[in-house]
Amino acid sequence: MMHTLVGWHVEMEFKEEGDRTRAAAMVRLTDGTEFRAHGTANRHPSDPEQLRVGEEIAGARALMDLASQLLQKAHTEIDEVSGRTSHPIPR
Prior knowledge:
91 residues, 3 strands, 35% helix, alpha+beta, three-stranded antiparallel sheet
């Protein structure tokens, strides 16, 4: 049986500005570190208005930014303990 050790809550907010959707994401880790990230999506003028799609694209881009920041933090911590340079696995 698995037990949850800790949980993270990611907050995501969206703003619609004409044909542009902006997403802002924030996560607070158990050590108190906060990461903030942003993503945008632009609707082509010939595309139908689908706010949900813009939110999904902008949100995904913000989450990708958060993921990159978290990987960088983890590898910095690995390097500090091991005394060598670690490298993230390429995506």
